[in-house]
Amino acid sequence: MADKSATGKQGKRYSAEEKAEIVAFILAFDAENKRGGMKAASDKYGVSVVTLSNWKKKDKGPKKKKAKVKKVAARKAIKTAVASTKVVADSPEAILSRLQAIRSEIHKLEKEYDGLKKKL
């Protein structure tokens, strides 16, 4: 028969219902008091704050990625460039007009980039 000290130290395992109940307690506490739900749940249920944080993150589901300003500006520039290349014109005037539009777009994007860089 194995000695209890030799079996190792394992923490308590919580069922999905217990986890859901504790996370619900955290959310309700935070809704009433704006903060402190994890500490209160840790004291009440005896679960570490790190574990509670992990459970709360998993309960939220997958994160949605936010579009950044740079990506949006790059997409607009690509769409503009693609749209302008679709129009095939042989005349030098049409080519010059497209070139000026592209340069104008590049200039706008450079100004926007400089402004964002200054904010950092």
Mean pLDDT: 78
N→C terminal distance: 65 Å
- Total of DSSP H or I helical runs spanning 4+ residues: 5
Indicate the percent of residues in helices.
over 70%
What structural class do helix, strand and pairing data support? mainly alpha
Give a short account of the largest sheet: none
Question: How would you describe this structure in keywords?
Answer:
0% strand, 5 helices, rod-shaped, 120 residues, mainly alpha, 2 domains, disordered N terminus
Structural write-up:
With 120 residues, the chain is mainly α. The chain has two domains: 14-60; 69-119. The protein contains five helices and no strands. It has helices at residues 16-33, 37-45, 49-60, 69-86, 92-119.
